Each structure stands twice: as C-alpha cells, then as structure tokens.
# Entry
Amino acid sequence: MLAILICGILGYRLLPLSALPQVDYPTITVSTFYPGASAEVMMTSVTAPLETQLGKIPGLDEMTSQSSGGASVITLRFNLTMSMDVAAQEVQEGINQANSLLPTDLPTPPIYAKVNPADTPIFTLGITSSTLPLTEVEDYVNTRLASKISQISGVGLVTLSGGQRKAIRVQMNIPKLTSFGIDLDSVRTTIGNVNVNSPTGTFDGPQRAITLQVNGQIQSVEQLLNQIIAYSNNGPVRLKDVATVVQGPENTQLQAWANKTPALILNVQRQPSANVIDVVDNIQAILPQLESSLPSGISLTPLTDRTVTIRASVHDVKLELLLAIILVIGVIFVFLKNISATIIPSLSVPLSIIGSAAIMYLLDFSLDNLSLMALTIATGFVVDDAIVMIENISRYIEMGEDRMTAALKGSEEIGFTIISLTISLIAVLIPLLFMGDVIGRLFYEFAVTLSVTIIISAIVSLTLVPMLCARMLQEQTKENQKIHFFDKIIHKIIALYDKGLQFVFRHQAITFFLTGCTFVLTCVLAYYIPKGFFPTQDNGILQGMSVMSQTSSLQVVSKKQQELANIILKDPDVVSLSSFVGIDGQNMTINQGRFLINLKERSQRSATADKIAKRITTAAHSVIGAQLYLQPVQDLALESSFSATQYQFLLENPNYEQFQIWVPRLIAKLKQNPILADVTSDLQAEGPVANVILDRTTGARYSITPQTIDNVLYDSFGQRQVSTIYTQSNQYRIILEAEPQFQKQIKSLNQLYLPGISGNSASDNTSGPTRNPTAGLVPLLEVTTVKYSTAPLLITHYKQFPATTISFNIAKHASLGDATKAIKQAEQDIHLPSSFVINFQGVASAFEKSLSNELFLIIAAVVAVYIVLGILYESFIHPITILSTLPSAAIGALFALWVDGSNLDIMGIIGIVLLIGIVKKNAIMMIDFALEAERVEKKSSLEAIHQAALLRFRPILMTTLAAMFAAIPMMLGTGTGSELRHPLGICIFWGLVASQLLTLFTIPVVYLYMERLSLWLRKRTVSRYRQKQLNQKAGQ
# Structure
C-alpha cells in the first residue's frame, strides 16, 4: 500500500494540466495569398488545383475551402487515428503536385500549418508604439518575437492581425506617366530589371578565388526615385518624375486595434494535439527576454490568455474533490461514531485517488476537468467497499466476537459481494472505453481513471481494511454498548422500513406493476426532455464577428469596427479586446471584422459569458449598417472554420447559382421559428463588380490582348509585388500601384492607357502596324467597355463542391435537439430541391452522431452489467432483479434535469451510466445475503429477502449517502467551469435520492417474483425431462 501511495504522489506531480482530454481532430490548413485577385479567380486558379491534389490524401475525412479576394484557405480534417506528422507530409506532397497548375506570379507558394482555424488563439498580445510606425514595429516583431514563439513546441501558427509588414510602395501618377508616353508595364519591367539579387559566379585562379558581385540591389528609396525608367523627347525620365515612392505597409487593406489603439495583434494558435498550459507557460517563460530585445518604444500587452480559466477551473475541481472527501468521511463518522473506525475506510479514499495518478501518468493522461470529475465521483465509490467490509466486521464484533475472528469471518462473508460490486461497476464503464469518434476520445480518460480508482479501492478493502479492523476496531464492552442518539434514529428508520416492507409484501402485484411503470415513465421522460451535446462553457472570453454591407469599403468597415469596439468596452464586465479588419486568412472578406474579448473573472462579473454576449449584441444595434455576432469561446472546438454563431450546417449544391435563390428563402423560414436565433449565412454573392470587357476585334487591331489589360489593371489597383529587396534579416517587397487618390473612383479608368500598335487610324490598317507616333499608347476605354454586375465576395467548397454555411444560435430554454428538428422541418416546408444536401457541422454534427451513440451507450452498459452479473451469480434470473433498480434512478436524474432547465447532454448521459453502476449495489447487497440465508439457513424466499433487506439497510444507506455527498460539490458549485460539472452532479445526486426511496421496496418484491419464475422454470425443466424419460420407456 505504501508503494501505491508513493507511486501515486510521484505520478501526480508529473501530470500536466489541461481543460479537457485531447480530442482534437488532426487538422491542417493550406493558405495561399494572391493580392488583387477576385474570389472567382482565387477559386479557379488556386483553390481548385489544390483541392484536386489534396482531396486524394488517404485518411482525409473532410475538406473545406474558402476563396475570397486575394486569399484561399483550405482546411483538411483527418480521422482521429491519423498521425499529424504523416498528414503534414501528405499535404506537402499534394501542394508540390499542384504547383505546376498554380499561377506563375504567386508572391509566395501555398503554405500549410498544423492548426484548426476554428480554434481560438490560446494567447494574444497587443503590440503598440507611441514613437515608431507600425511598419517598423512589425519588422522588429517578426524577427525578434514571432519567429521565436513559433519555434516553441506545440505552437501551430503565429499570426499578426493588422499586419503592417514594411514594403516600398511605388505610387504612379498616371497622367504624368501618360504624358511621357510610358506605359505601366514598362515601369514594372524596369523595376524588376534594376533590382536583382542573383548569383554571378567566381574566378577560380591558380592562387586564389574571387567572387563576382554586381551592385544589382536597390539600397534606398532615393536610389529608386533617381532610377531612369525611359527616355522621352531626348531626355531621361526618372521614376521621381512620374511617381511617389514611400515606405509603407505591404498590404494597406489590414488594420487592427488593441482596445482603441492602432496595434499589431499577435495571435498564437496551438497544434491540435498540444497541451495549452504547457505551450502558454513556455511562451510566458521567454516573453520577458524577448521583450527586452525590442526597442524601448514598443510595448507588449497580453490581451487574452486561455490558460487563466483552465487553471481556475482545474483548481475549482480540486477544491470540490477535497470537499467531497471531507463530506464522505463525515458520513462515515456519523454512522460509525468512532474515530478509529472512521479512519479505516477513510484511508481507502487517498490511497485509491492518489494511487490512480500513477496509472494516469503512465497512460499519458492529464489533470483535466473530466479526469478530476472522475476522481470526485470516485470518492463516493471507493469508500463503498470499505464501508461494506467494516460494517460487516463491526456486526460480528457487536455479536461478541473478538477483533481477529470478526475480521476473518466478516471479510470472508462479504468478499464475494465486494468483488461483485467492483466488477459490475467496471462493467458499466466498458462501453465508454470502446466508444469511437469524439465521445470515445472525450471520455476514455474519464472511464479509465474511474476504473483504476475502483480497482485500487477493491484491493484496499479486501486487504488493508480487514487487517486494520483486526487491530484498530474496539471490541464490544458494556461502555460502548450504549445506544447513541443517532443509533436510535437509525433503529426507528429501520422499524419504519420494516413496516413498509410488510406492506409491499402484502401488495406484491401492485408493487411489481409500479416497478414496471417506472420503466415506462423513464422512457417517456427520456423522449421528451430537451437534448444537447455538451454544456456551454464560460471561459471568460468572447469571440465575435462584425458584418457590414457587401458594398462597404475598408474605410467604412474600419469606422464601424471602432464604433462597435467602443460599445463593447463600455460594458462593465469587459476588461480588454482585440479587433481587426481586412483579408488575412483568418478574416476572409473585406466587409467583415473580428473581435476577441477578455472578460472579468467569473466571481467579479454580474452575468455569465453567454448573457454578456447577448447584452453587448443588443447594445450594438445602435451602430447602423453593422451586425455583431458574439459567442463564448469553448474548450471543445469541433468546427473546421470560424463561424458567426455557435452552431452551423453546410448546404451543398453542385450549382452555385441555386444558393442565391434558396438560401434567402431558407433563412427567412428559419428566422420565423422562435427556437432559433441569430440565423445568418456566409453567402455573399452581391459584391459589386466592374467588368472590363475587351472588344477583341478592336483590340486585335492594336495588338492588345486580355493579358495586356490584366497587366495594366493589376499594376494600377492590385498592390502588385514587382520585386523584392533582400537584407540579412528580412525581405521587403516593392509594390507597384496607382496613386491612392486614383484608386478611389471607377472613373479613373478613363485615364488608363494600354501599350499598343496602330496604323494611321484605328480603322485603317492597310499600311501595316507601326508604333504610335505620339506615345504608342491606346486609351483603355477605346478597346473596352465597362459593365456593372455582382459577384461573390466569398466562395465556399465542401469536399470540392459549392457550399454555403448557415449559422445559428439557440433561443433561451430551447435545445440543440429542438433546433435540428426545426431545421429539417424548414427544409421540408420550403420544398428545398433534392439537389441540396444538408450537413451539420461541428457541435451540431457531433450531436447528431451522439443521439445514436447515447442509446447504444446505455444499452451496452446494461448488457455488460447483465453478462457480468450472470457469470458471477451463475444465473440469468437474479441479474434481472439487480437491473430492475435502474429505471428508478433514471427517473430521478431525468426529472431533476428537466426541473433545472438543463439539457440531457453527454454529461447527463454519463451521469445516468454511472447511476447504473451505483444503484445496483443496493440489490447486490440484498440478494447476496438473501441467497446465503436460503442456502445456509434454509429460509424461504420471503423470509430470506426480508431479513437481508433489514440487515443490509444500514450499509446501503451509508454507501448511498456517501455517493450523494460526493456529488453535492459538483451539483452546487459555482466556480469556473461549474457549468460542465453541474449536470453530472444533478444526475447522480437526485438519481440516488429517487433510487433510495424506491428500490428499497421494489428490490424485495422483484426478487420474489424472479424466485417464483426460477422455481417455475426449474419445475418445467424437470417435468419435461421426466416426460421425455417416460416417452422413451413407452417407446421401448
């Protein structure tokens, strides 16, 4: 026992902390950026080729892609058995195979990251400076901060929202350029040619080697400004004559704020299998050193830290575990009324719980909410065996036996009962060990931890407890034979119980009928109670999305975003926030923004995170033209992309145009249902587009092709990266564009000219083409027309087919089960064409799968217990008696959940499964003694079960109260993460209350009926055998 204790202490000290067991799907995102490209160009030229290759990867469960202006993000989710490293190798191979099909002028090739885009950053920093421009700040952050953090084990991706990467921007004055007869494409070519960083070779002489170098790189803005780009009127035209060259951000379409201050937001996302606590601890350990390496004018402000609430939640569970231990020991002391007698069973608690930590460490488990809940519940289980043992030994001492004899007789008599209790309780947990998908991964640690604790408890009860009883229990004397006040109460209760038993024995048929009614009532409650998947956690962080009109410019979006931020910061429960706008791979359209909001600690807040989110979104209605969606951050992230709300489903159809017809109809129908709230979709097909249409016949006369037009437009409006300046620590792009004022209005197209070849006129080409004698330029609108239309801002694919995500929340007092039914009904009501396919995503998808799993889980637990009990009792009748206790416990649990307003979710189901293991002990203890009385004392079934019920009433009451008191801290707890533990505590406590009140009377009656059935079956078997013998004799 000492070895178990020492190993357990060592294992406990080495166990890592986490919020939940590792249930993350191996997920990899592939991101590609192509500045200036539309969503349709990104889809056809970038996303589609990548999807074709990546879709061939074995083990791929889901592939979702989003293509928007200048960005493509493909999310690959693999099955749970897939190794992340193997998946990464396969993804890289897929990217390599697709490279030949991608645009040749991509600024950077596609990159992958081992990260789930729906997973909220585990740590965010606001980086500001009052003395340096953000472009300089990012330069330092990239080289001295972000790169070091990304090297930490477990970090999946480090991003800078509102990125202000330094670049040189060449802003062309289009009218001046045209006046010199120079086209933009010539400028682009010239810049590329005058800024080179290429190998030039070496001289390898007889004595020495000499490296050749050319001063090919541009060293400063002044050098670039003085560069000659052409000659006009026999004189040089320098870049400064037709352009302004400035140092600025590489992408001017990105902005971010820390609270109200313009900033860079550093987001750290973990790899799907990484431990959050370990990763953040490692970041915080090196952060002071990294901060000291930055200039003094740069300040770092932690904005959100996911580990704060994880640590607080685990701390609260530990306190509840300690409180449960104290309550259980208190129950033991009240019944045994002796300190030494209390110490003996109490030792099984620390031995079992601490000893299980050694096995947890060997199995690579963690101290998380579920494993600690398992240990908390176990405090009510582990003392059961010890209580049963010590109570039976005490009974022999009260009968006058000495301690050693009592210990031997008592342990021998009760040993089989303890083994039955232990094996049957573990049998309940067996189905949990073999559940697949998310539920199996989620509760594997829970089931193993609880099983190990129970096994250690049985070993302690069968070895240590009898030994200590033989040495420590007081023998019966006249002094301790005095009847205590509590004993008088127990005797009165037993007397009342005896009268109740006599009543049910006189009315056995009615009692048996009512027992059957409990099963029916359980089924009715299980059918009508609202269903859910997992409790909504309050982790003290809100994440949100702001949505503006599809026609909104960055200036409008930025202004609205700051107005929303001001409203959020006015809320008394908000501590800080980070927000950003622009397309950066996390945010996918220009008309959307993102928020990450840090709330006060739960004890200092006036409301839950969910209520605060609703309060803020209501206040945000005052911002005209903006819609704000907020949701609490969850530890269990099952989605593969960020969504406006907590739940979503995908609508698939091969024909993208069908979405524009049917999605608005479906959303309108869903909004009419009071069960659903905040219904929206990511369908954005109304983005304004100016289509520049080339007259190919006219264009041919000038030798103008679509490529010519694309180049000029891209050079003017696409933030085109035309060259790169390389330094020892970084690389800086040279961006070519028209002057900012030229990019604000569509009428600027009137001033664009194309390089072309013409004759004397556009219509006279008899003399053959010659260079235009004036400038060799052709007005853009001479060969094109502009037509306005709409096009998608965002294109979503699911498994390579067009799709759109419809997001929704659930109204108060509604459940996820009600919501899924409402969605399916709406689909039928609007007669959605059969070409559409609905696929629930994330939590909603896991919920649908769990509906069948939950029923299987309960049935499997019952079957497992039946098989084990059948083997132990060598009977198929008596296990039915034991299992008859289950409906009464389920009634208490389900009714309590319904009264509390809670859903029947995974935690509730686990509570019911555990009840199956707990409540059967009443029947086991009664039946063991009844069978022994029938076999040894030759008593009738009625006399035997009557005696057993009265004799075992005290230990049954003790063990039940111990389990109930162990559940009280979880049921009544209000600390961080209590919403996760609350349903489990409710189910166990009230299930035990109902079971104790009912099964004490129903078990004896069911036992009698099963005995009669057994007797009838034996007589029938004997009768058939005798009849067969007579028939054989008659035949002879």
User: Anything to note?
Assistant: The first strand starts at residue 27 and ends at 33. The CA atoms of residues 884 and 1003 lie 7 Å apart. The chain has a mean pLDDT of 87. The first helix runs from residue 2 to 14.
